[in-house]
Every structure is written in structure tokens, then in C-alpha cells.
Design goal:
about 550 residues, alpha+beta, five-stranded antiparallel β-sheet, 10 strands, about 65% helix, EC 2.7.13.3, transmembrane, kinase activity
Length: about 550
């Protein structure tokens, strides 16, 4: 906080501090050379004390928070110091009179209008009373004194009004800038949600959306309750800081109110006696009810933030229902594609291989019945036909298998997809991406291929978006019993310990990668530091695909 405030004051108030010390130096010089007042030695002492006081006040401003109690006290102290200085240097005739613009500037810029004008009125009454009762050598009336100093008072008035006007404009600009940043953060979160959901299975989506609910609302706890997850230990997914026993209480409350939750159309506030209030939002698509997501409402932010939380959860629930619906449709589409492919293969084998096999069976049956009645030459001729039919059936079967196997037909689909994706990323973001693969990628099962593709995509995406990398090295090694992946970038890096220890800042991509690696029984490590890039390494044990039957069929040909 102190670092941020120092940056704020060093930036937008540099002119103010320059004016502070220039005005102090100028008025001090005038005070030192004028004839009236105490001796020169006393004046120099007053000036030294004044500079020490000004330096101390400046440090207090730098270390105080914007519109905080500290800055109010600091403005009050400086205003009091100005009053004492005027007492010692001649009241309205003091050359330090114009230094009062220093605290007036700070009060008008960073404090409320009421506090600012209270300080100005107090100063006005004090300096006028002192000048009238104690420094009124010519016995002027109060009215004539005010008229003689009207330029100073008007200048002070107009300057305070101008600063307040400019401060109001600046505050409105800051609010607009904050809203713009918030909108940009939401857009960024939307992009991250869509990307994470695209590269995740349906089972992991509830974890992703629970994490994003925590990230968007900036509260301490979020959850996702899957109504279709009965008899599963992970029906309720929670993220953030969890009081002891809260998961059990939430699960019981959802189970008891399931019928009511299924009819829920909008958000609802649910209370648990021991744990407080929870904002619940239904997740419903055009075809089904998926469950609810929500957050634990903190008492301190309940009134001012409830509407914002409703909007954020509403946005997430609609997006979640769309993505879940899309995953469901993709699953159905994949099943239909499998059925269609099964039917095609069945028809193809029926029209080719089964016909040959039927002919072989019929020929063998006929030969077994008549071999005693036919000549040796006829038997030899019949066996020759059976052999030719067998060879033809084997070729047809092998041809069908080859057409289904990317390895057999010379295809290189998976690694080509990875290369194509990284090439697109490289061109889109003007980043150099080097891919090096050793080993036979055809030995990887499709589950490993999908997981590795998602991890490569997620890690390179994070290196570009968050690390602002210009060079990424991806190395994939496929060994007989394991596969290892290394992704190294030259980005800005981060503190791994701090990032992973805070659920509000930990990247969702990191969690997705950890889930994928753990689901395959592997291990993952992340090494990074500020300004030194990031290195992600993982190792996954695996059993290669069994090609024994295909090899035997190939040998038959």
C-alpha cells in the first residue's frame, strides 16, 4: 500500500511538491532580507525549523493512504503549523502567508469538501482575529482590514474552488478508468473461461466455474453443486477458505431443497445457522437443470455488493449452462459418429470380408462331404481356390484396418495438429515457438494425446498472455514406459509460492494441468521467478497401445 501511494504522489503530485519547496524557499528569502521582525539569526533558525517541518510533513503525505485518517491529520498539522508560523512572522503581513496554499491544495485534492472548507474557515478566522487583535498597529477596523486583504482571501477562495473542481474531474476519470479496467478484467475472464472450458472435460467444468466465481466476486468461498452427480463424492465442489464442516452442511441443505432448487429461476439467498448467508444461482439450459453455483456472502460486503454478485453469478451461470449444453451435444455427436462409423465398417466387412469367409466355409464344407468321391486333382484345385479366397479376405481385412489406422496409412494426425496449433499461436502473437519431439507419438493412447495437447496449449497460452514471452521451447519425449513434457519460456515469470498459495490469484490453467496430469498418474513441477521466465515439467507413466493383433495380420499378408 505504501509503495502504491508513493507512486501516486510521485506521479500526480510532483508539481505540488515542487511548488511547496519553491514557495517556501522564496518566502524564506523575503523573510530573511526584510527589515522588520526578529534578528537575522532568529529568522534563520525559524527558516531551518520550517524546512525540517516541511520535509517531515511531505514524508507523512507520501506514506499516508489516499483520503485516509492519516492524511487528514497531516493536513490539520500543516495548517496548524502555518497558523503558528504566521503568529511568529507578523500575521497578515507575513511573507509566509502564501504558503497556506500547500495544505489547502492537499485538502482540496484528497479530502472531502466539508473537511476542506472547515480547514479554510478555521484558518481564515484565526489569522483575521490575530491580525485584528494583536498585529493591528494602525488600529484598522475589521471591515477595512478585510477589504485591504481581499485579494488574498479571493485568491485563496478561487484557488480552493478550482482545485476542488479539478479534483472532482480527476475522481470521475478515476472511476471511469476503474470501470474500464473492471470491464477489461471481465472480458479477460470471459476469454479464460471459454478457453479453459474448451480444453476441459465436462467433469472438470464445475471446478473451473467454481474457481471463476471466486475470482470474479473476490470473496473467500465459492461452490458448484452438480444435481446430476448423485452417488458421487464430488457432487459438491468448493473453492477458497472453508470453515470446518461447511461442505457437509451445504450438501445436506441442497439435498433437502433439491425439488425447490429445480424450480428456481433466479438467484436466491440461503442461510445456514452456523455459517451465514450463501448466494445461490441456478444453472439451467433449454433442455435441463444442471445444478447451482454460488458464493458465501461476507457480512461486511453484503449490502453494497449483493447486486454486483448477482450480476456476476448470473453471467457465469448462463455461460456455464451454454458450455455444458455444448459439451452434452458434442458427446451425443461423438456417439452418433461412432455408431455411424461402426455401421460403415460393418457394411464394408459384410460386403467384402464376410463374403470371402462365407465362400471359404462353403468350400470347406463341400470338400469335407465329397473328398472321397472326387479325384486328387479336383481336391488340389478346390484347396487352391480356398487359399486364394483366404488371401483375398486377409487383404480386404488388412485394407480396412489400414484405413482406420493413421499409423498404417502413413498419417501423422496428432503431432501434425500440435504443430499446426503452435504455428498458429506463433503467427498470431508474433512469438517464436520451438517444438522438438522424440519417440513414436503413435504409441500414445488417445487419452494421453488429448491431455498433452491441452497442457501444451494451456502452458504456451499462459506464457504469452501472462508472461509476455517472446520465445517458448516445447520438448516432448516419448519413452517405452513414460512420456515427459517440458515447456520453457523467457517471460516475466512469477513467484510460484505466492501465486499457488492464494486461491484468488492462482491461475486456472495451472489447476487444469495438475488435474490432467494427476488423472493419468503423473507428476508436474513449475519453476519460475520474477524476471526469469517459467519452466513447466511433467512426467506421465503409460502403457503403449497393443498392436499385437495388427502385426499378426500384417505378417499373414
Amino acid at each position: 500500500m505504501i509503495t502504491q501511494m508513493r507512486k501516486m504522489f510521485s506521479g500526480e503530485s510532483r508539481v505540488f511538491y515542487l511548488y511547496r519547496f519553491i514557495s517556501l524557499a522564496g518566502t524564506s528569502l523575503v523573510y530573511a532580507i526584510e527589515d522588520r521582525g526578529p534578528p537575522l539569526g532568529v529568522k534563520i533558525g525559524i527558516i531551518l525549523v520550517l524546512f525540517i517541518f516541511a520535509t517531515w510533513i511531505t514524508d507523512m503525505y507520501t506514506q499516508s493512504g489516499k483520503a485516509s485518517r492519516t492524511i487528514k491529520i497531516t493536513v490539520g498539522l500543516e495548517m496548524t503549523g502555518m497558523m503558528v508560523l504566521h503568529l511568529l512572522s507578523g500575521g497578515m503581513d507575513s511573507p509566509f502567508l502564501w504558503c497556506v496554499f500547500n495544505p489547502a491544495w492537499m485538502a482540496a485534492s484528497y479530502l472531502s469538501s466539508a473537511y476542506c472548507w472547515f480547514m479554510m474557515l478555521s484558518y481564515f478566522l484565526f489569522i483575521t482575529a490575530f491580525s485584528y487583535f494583536f498585529a493591528n498597529g494602525q488600529m484598522e477596523t475589521l471591515g477595512s482590514m478585510l477589504l485591504s486583504e481581499n485579494r488574498f482571501y479571493l485568491m485563496l477562495l478561487f484557488m480552493t474552488l478550482t482545485i476542488q473542481l479539478l479534483a472532482g474531474v480527476k475522481n470521475r476519470l478515476e472511476i471511469a478508468n476503474a470501470r474500464t479496467n473492471e470491464s477489461m478484467e471481465h472480458m479477460k475472464s470471459l476469454y479464460q473461461i471459454v478457453e479453459a472450458a474448451t480444453h476441459s472435460d465436462s467433469e472438470n467444468l464445475k471446478i473451473i466455474f467454481a474457481e471463476f466465481a471466486l475470482k470474479l466476486t473476490k470473496l473467500r468461498m465459492s461452490f458448484f453443486w452438480d444435481v446430476n452427480g448423485h452417488a458421487k463424492p464430488d457432487q459438491l465442489i468448493t473453492q477458497g477458505v472453508l470453515p470446518i464442516g461447511i461442505e457437509t452442511s451445504l450438501s445436506e441443505a441442497f439435498d433437502m431443497q433439491e425439488a425447490e432448487l429445480r424450480r428456481l429461476e433466479f438467484s436466491r439467498l440461503m442461510s445456514l445457522a452456523e455459517y451465514g448467508d450463501f448466494l445461490v444461482m441456478p444453472i439451467r439450459s433449454s433442455t435441463r437443470f444442471w445444478g447451482v453455483m454460488g458464493v458465501k456472502i461476507e457480512p461486511a460486503s453484503y449490502e453494497e455488493g449483493r447486486q454486483g454478485y448477482i450480476q456476476q453469478l448470473g453471467f457465469l451461470s448462463e455461460l456455464c449452462s451454454v458450455i455444458l449444453e455444448r459439451h452434452q451435444l458434442e458427446r451425443i455427436e461423438n456417439q452418433l459418429m461412432i455408431i455411424e462409423e461402426q455401421n460403415r465398417i460393418a457394411d464394408e466387412m459384410h460386403d467384402s470380408v464376410s463374403q470371402y469367409i462365407f465362400g471359404i466355409v462353403y468350400a470347406v464344407h463341400s470338400l469335407s462331404r465329397k473328398w472321397k468321391e472326387i479325384s486328387r486333382e479336383q481336391i488340389k484345385e478346390q484347396l487352391q481356390l480356398i487359399q486364394e479366397s483366404s488371401v483375398a479376405a486377409s487383404k480386404e481385412l488388412r485394407s480396412t484396418i489400414y484405413s482406420l489406422s493413421s499409423r498404417k496409412n502413413g498419417g501423422d494426425f496428432w503431432i501434425t495438429t500440435v504443430k499446426s496449433h503452435l504455428d498458429s499461436v506463433s503467427k498470431l502473437h508474433a512469438v517464436k515457438v520451438n517444438l522438438h519431439v522424440t519417440g513414436d507419438d503413435h504409441r500414445l493412447h488417445v487419452n494421453y494425446q488429448k491431455a498433452l495437447f491441452r497442457i501444451i496449449s494451456e502452458s504456451t497460452g499462459n506464457a504469452i498472455r501472462h508472461g509476455h514471452s517472446t520465445l517458448i521451447k516445447v520438448e516432448l519425449r516419448i519413452k517405452p514406459d513414460e512420456v515427459s513434457l517440458s515447456v520453457l519460456d523467457n517471460g516475466s515469470g512469477f513467484s510460484v509460492k505466492e501465486r499457488l498459495s492464494d486461491p484468488k490469484t492462482v491461475g486456472l490453467g495451472v489447476n487444469n494441468m495438475e488435474l490432467l496430469v494427476q488423472s493419468l498418474g503423473g507428476t508436474i513441477s513449475i519453476q519460475s521467478a520474477q524476471g526469469k521466465g517459467t519452466h513447466i515439467q511433467l512426467t506421465i507413466p503409460f502403457q503403449p497401445q497393443d498392436n499385437k493383433e495388427l502385426n499378426e495380420l500384417q505378417m499373414m499378408g
